[in-house]
Structure formats: structure tokens, C-alpha cells
Amino acid sequence: AACGADAAPTATTAAAATKPAGTTAPAAGTTAPAAATTAPATTGSATAAPAAATKPAGTTAPAAATTAPATTGGATTAPAAATTAPAASTGADPRGTGPTKRGGGGTLRLLWWQAPTILSVHLAQGTKDTDASRIVLEPLAITSLESVLPNVPVLAKSIPSAADGGLSADGKSVTWKLKDGLKWSDGTPVTSADVKATFEYITKPDNGASTVDQYTNIATIDTPDATTVKINFKEATALWYTPFTNVNGAVNQKAQIDKCTNPKDCDLIKNPVGTGPYKVKSFASGDNVQYVINDNYREATAPFFDAIDMKGGGDATTAAKAVQTGQADFAWNLQVSPDISKQLTDAGKVLDQGPGFGVEQMVVNFTDPNKEVDGEKSSLKAPHPFNTDPKVREAYSYLIDRDSIAKQLYASAKPTCNILLGIPAALQSKNSKCSYDVAKANQLLDEAGWKKGSDGIREKGGVKMKVVFGTSINPVREKEQQIIKQAFQQAGIQMELKNADAGVFFGQPDNPDALSRFEKDLQMFTTGPADPDAQDFLIQQTTKQIPQKSNGWKLNNTGRWSNADYDKLYETLAKELDPAKRAQIEIQLNDLVVSNFARIPIVDRYSNNGHAKELVNTNYTPWDSALWNVAYWKK
């Protein structure tokens, strides 16, 4: 999943990347232009539309042929490329060169080993749901891999700029113009009223939208005519571009929103009317989605494929095997070991690997999952008996062998000590340090007063140091857990592993095994920013983002960590417009999280999608779904 100042700040322009297939990505510690974090609200089109990408479609970004030592904090050179995909579609359009006619390509077979359970971007609880929805639903614009601001208009006619009057001088509004003649898949016109209705739906508390953070600074939306959307912000903001763009920006149809009286059971989330290249033919939650061409799609020569069959379920290894044997054309998020990846490429298939997929991390529960208060486990009224001790959490970090995990278990990852990704490079902290040191962990636990008993398990005050560690069912994650469990045992901590199916773990919080419920002591998953600027990601660690029964467990601070310094610094970030200052604040926020061991980073993951060699235009961006340009996919 995945973000006011002076009236006329100096505009800075990010140079576009020209990374060809097989080259190494820039080191995480390299210098990036100031605009790599965000552009001032008054910058013009030069910033909004960087030079076109030259990365061939389907090319690979670096894979983990080399790994950094675990003490680097992530500021190391990215791994060298593992495979090179066929060169294709090097034109100016980041989507690639489009098909020459609509249809005729047969059925595109997709395999998402985490099965979608809902077809709503805004109610999604995992990437699987977002991706299944994005085939149908679209944002106003998208940020490609080579850009730091939206540069691919989708429903929008163009990217707003100061030059065309789209960006206000005071940073308090942005005006988007919709393309002429847009239609929903049911043939009705797309209007500015649909955008406004989507905003109202997202921000209605009863709906429990998971994307609400991108929209909380909006005061009102004006719709002076059918194709004009003026977004008025509560305060001057550098993030004028986050609402309605990228992965969290899908626009829904007003008519369908109005008919949805039950947000948990209506066509809006089961059979959405969209503007994308396909529409839903059938949907079996937790299993399969079938799509057919949207005859009202705005591009007459797209899409290429006649239909899409998205199969969900299984695991990443099975998904890789399906691509290897030709049973699937494309498989997402192949979180598999290097030997499995090699088998796939040896069979003549392609791995698309790109930076910025997310950081695999351990989240520490600051509340007691074993104590029920007012019918609620992991309640703020019941602090955890030992996870609240800073020395205990620090010991946990020393018990994670990041280097071995990256080398042995991942085809494309590197150890990291940061929760913020290495892109843009300006956001990568060089302050964080971490290492694998069981002796140091034992020392910290001794100092904290947790002594080993006759059974080798630490205890204090009659409380045994026993933890339940959960994640999604996945062979790689289960091996990660075993490595960590062995180290915890060496430190006198008894660990029980309790995992859930990915559809449940990343599913709706009505299930106690869902990650937002967090009724365990520790849990592990991958997450990261949804935009080059990380503000909307960093809000997730604020106190007001703690999920509880009272808010339907819909929020994102799953560890229930509360830190006044972090909250105050985040508020400073929200008001800061200067790009360089924002970058420094975001680094400080990263450092607060990792130095308090609220979240313990493990590896910085690259995307790792496998597909048939003849499938082209599977161009990657870390800021949107893998299917963001599926209209241009072709063989």
C-alpha cells in the first residue's frame, strides 16, 4: 500500500531517472535534489512533469545479489540486477507504447497469492484489495517511478501547476480539470460531483475508510462546473497532490455511493462501476475476480486483453511455480527465496524488480493481548507487561539477524535499520544503527531485571517472558520467524508462532487475527509510503492513529505506541512547506520510531513480480498498484 510557507518559494526540479535494465540503483545514501521529498505548493509544470523515463518496460531493478551489513542503517549501495527483461516500450509515455487496437489478446491470467476480499480502494485492508480494485477504479493522476510528483494524467486533463493557475500562490488550493467526455462503465458521464462524493464518502467516519489520512486536510471541494474540481485545504500544504492520486486516489461513482447504505455490503465494494479499462464480471471474495473489457473506456485502442482472470490464494512459492510452468501470465509479490527465483528465470520467465516496495518489519504491541478490558483485548487500559520497557524492545532488535534473513530468504532485499525506504534518497536516515548481537540482548534483559529461571525462560514479578509472534502464512515469513525464534530462545524468551491466512491477516478487522486488531505480542508485515513524500505514512505512528474497538480498529498505529515528541514533530511536518526542511523532519520522525523500537525494521524489500517473457509494459512504480497501466499490457 502507498503520501504554508513563503508565498513564492524557490522551485526545485527533480531530474528524471534514466536507469536502463540491469543497472544498479543509486545508493540509499546518495544526494537527491530537494524536490525528492515534495515540491512547494507554488512550483510549476517543470516540477510536475519531469523528463520522460527511459526504463524499458518489464526491465528489472536491482535484486539482492549483494547485501549490506545489518549495521548500515540502509545507506548502502543497492544490490546488482539478477535478470534482465526484454527491452520494450521506451517511449516518452511511462505506461509504455499502447496497443494498436482494442481486444484480441485473449485472457490475461493474474495470480495474487493474497486473495482479494473487497473491491474498494478506500476500504482495502491490504494491497490485494487495492490491486483488484484498481483494474476498475482510477485516480486523477499517477506518479511514475522516475518522478517525485504526479506526472501521468489519468482522469485529469493535465497536472496542475502555478503557471496554469491550478496551484494557488498561498498553497491552500489546487484545481484539477477532468478530461472531456469521460464515462463510467455504465455509460453515464463522469463529473466533478463524483470526485466530491468520493471525498465525502472517505471522510464519513461510519465508513471506516483506510485511505482517510490523504484527505483529512481538505476543508471543502468546489465543483463550479462538470469538469472542474477545486480542492480547498484547511491549511497551506506541500501535499496538494496526494488526494485523488496514486494508489489511494481512486474516484468512485456518486450514484453508486448514494445507493450504498451499508458500507460492508453493497455493490460499491463488491461490483464497483469504474472508469478503468475493465469492469467486473464476477467476484468470489477470497478466491477469484473475473473482468471483461469496459466498452466505455476512453482509449479506443486499449486494452489489449479481452478479459482478466485474477486468481487469489495459495502462497508466493506456488505463485512463482505457476508462472514458471505457464499456468499464470503474471504473479505479484513473489516473496520467495533466491533458489525459487532462479528456477523461474532459468525457465525463461522474467522478474520485474523495483525499489520502494516496502520495509519488512516487526511491530511491538504496547498493550496486553492477553488481558480483556470492557470486552476488548489489546486495550489502551492494559499496558503490556514487558513490551513497554525500552530495554526489552532494544533487546528484540539485537535478536534479529537481518543479514542472514536478506541473504538466505529474499531474492530482492537488503538489511535496513529504517522504516522509511531508500527512495527518494533524501529521506534515508544515516543515523539509525542496528546489529545482530545475542550477548548484547541478554545484557539488556539482565539490566531490565528479567532473570532466567530454572527452565531458561526469563521472568520478573511472577510474569514469564513469553511472546506470541504472528504474521501472514507464507514460507519466507515462516522461515524469518524461525530465525528470530531461535535467537529469542537464546535470550531466554519463549516464542510461540501463530500465523493467519493472508486474506485474514490483511483482511477486515472483524476477525481477531487481522493485523489492526493485533491480539498478539509481536507481528510482522511489509509497509511503506504511498507517495515520494512520506507525511501520510508517518501519520500512522501518531497517537490519534491507534486502532481500538471504539473506532472499529480501522486505523494504522497497530502497535499502539504513543509518543508526545513524535506527535508534536509530526504536526510541525504537516505545516512545513520547504522541501529540504520537510526531508529533515521526516528523517527525525523515522529516527524516533526506530530509536524507541516501536517498529523494528528488518529488510528493505524490492518488488518482485514474475511474468511470461512475452508480456510487456508491466512497468513498475512504487506509488501505485502493479496494475496501474494494465490497459497497456500486451503480448
The helix tally amounts to 15
The Rg value, from CA coordinates, equals 23 Å
Distance between the termini: 28 Å
The overall pLDDT average reads: 86
Secondary-structure class: alpha+beta
What sort of overall outline do the alpha carbons produce when their principal axes are compared? globular
Helix content percent band: 10-25%
Largest sheet: 11 strands, mixed
Percent of residues in beta strands: 15-25%
Spans of at least 5 consecutive residues whose pLDDT stays below 50 are 1-91
| Count of strand segments | 21
Description:
- The chain has 635 residues and is α+β, with helices and mostly antiparallel strands.
- It contains 15 helices and 21 strands.
- Strands 1, 7, 8, 9, 10, 11, 14, 18, 19, 20 and 21 form an 11-stranded mixed sheet that branches. Strands 4-6-5 form a 3-stranded antiparallel sheet.
- A hairpin with a 5-residue loop joins strand 5 and strand 6 (228-233).
- Mean pLDDT is 86; it is low at 1-91.
Features:
635 residues; alpha+beta; 11-stranded mixed beta sheet; 3-stranded antiparallel beta sheet; 15 helices; 21% helix; globular
Q: Strands, helices and their partners?
A:
Layout: H1 45-48, E1 107-112, H2 127-134, E2 141-142, E3 152-153, E4 173-177, H3 192-203, E5 218-222, E6 228-233, H4 254-259, H5 267-270, E7 278-284, E8 288-293, E9 307-312, H6 316-324, E10 330-331, H7 338-346, E11 350-364, E12 372-373, E13 376-377, H8 390-398, H9 402-409, E14 413-415, H10 438-447, E15 451-452, E16 458-460, E17 463-464, E18 466-470, H11 475-490, E19 494-497, H12 502-505, E20 522-527, H13 535-538, H14 564-575, H15 579-595, E21 599-611
Parallel strand pairs: 1-9, 1-10, 18-19, 18-20
Antiparallel strand pairs: 2-3, 4-6, 5-6, 7-8, 8-9, 10-21, 11-20, 11-21, 12-13, 14-21, 15-16, 16-17
